[in-house]
Specification:
Helix Hairpins; 5 helices
Length: 105
């Protein structure tokens, strides 16, 4: 994954786009791309164009990588910190097979 992240950062840097990648702008971009991902399921949740879905998913992930870079944080570290919290909020014995929010378990 490190090679892929480095490729994403190099792509941005080679085009001098880092100047536009402030956290607020990246937050907007993530939200917009997530909306485009959701749009793929707008009228038909079962018969979607998988290629389009994967492209939009990749766009969301790329902007998330740029956000982590802009904030100078390690993706693996922040994901593991969040997973530690999730494991506490959603213990297996209460959450298994249940879609309720942790406050309702």
């Amino acid at each position: 994954m490190k090679d892929t992240i480095n490729r994403i950062i190099k792509f941005r840097n080679d085009r001098d786009w880092n100047q536009f990648h402030m956290p607020a702008n990246l937050s907007k971009a993530i939200s917009i791309e997530a909306g485009e991902l959701l749009e793929e399921f707008l009228w038909d949740e079962e018969n979607y164009n998988k290629e389009h879905v994967l492209e939009e998913l990749a766009d969301v992930i790329v902007y998330c990588i740029h956000m982590a870079d802009a904030l100078n944080v390690d993706l693996e570290e922040i994901i593991n910190i969040k997973m530690d919290k999730n494991e506490l909020k959603y213990p297996i014995e209460k959450a298994r097979g249940n879609s309720k929010k942790y406050t309702e378990l």
